[in-house]
Amino acid sequence: MYKVFIDNSVIQFLDSSEEVPLKGYDLVVNSFQFELSKLLDQFDFIASKVCLLVVYDDFELVFNQVFHAYEFMDAAGGIVKCNQRYLFIERHGMWDIPKGKLDANEQPWEAAVREIEEECGIQGPTIDRLLGVTFHTYSYMGRLTIKKNWWYALNYSGSMEVFPQEEESITQAIWIEKSEWNLIQSNTYDSIQEVLRMAEEW
């Protein structure tokens, strides 16, 4: 199942071969029976917390129909673990996970390592595994944009001294134990909450 976070709301995409849940959604849409290009016009995603389910046979086709008016951007980042502590950043007054846009011809895992090094000032974190992928929308330079984020779990054994990248509006970077993740959860984005759930067993 894929999820797209739109402000306070979420659209989930479910393969038609899977069992469709009967509860928990404001609307369940079968991609064969609905004009998907108009789906986003049906709800005020900012003012209310809407949860939609779109059932698909061809994810890429259906996804592009729903978000036809959006520009696509690829990004990657991850949660770094060192001595049972985990690295998080604060940006624009919200807790976040270091991440950033892929450069030309760059693979997601390469971008994740580079962005973490740049945004936190550490060197040499190594990929443990892919946690998962999320999507979220926002406005970038006046253009509607949907960002696909690859999220990784990374290990690190170097110095825990950090240097937040101020030019990226990062005000602090901290190492905390998993028992303290409630600090992050109390002031972060829904998409980051999703990544934290992905990393619960790590």
From TrEMBL:
CDD domains: NUDIX_Ap6A_hydrolase. GO terms for biological process: AMP biosynthetic process; ATP biosynthetic process. One of its GO terms (molecular function) is bis(5'-nucleosyl)-tetraphosphatase (asymmetrical) activity. Transmembrane segments: none annotated. Pfam families: NUDIX. InterPro entries: NUDIX_hydrolase-like_dom_sf, NUDIX_hydrolase_CS, NUDIX_hydrolase_dom, Nudix_hydrolase_domain. Signal peptide: none annotated. Keywords: Hydrolase. The keyword Ribonucleoprotein does not apply. Residues 71-197 form the Nudix hydrolase domain. This is NUDIX hydrolase.
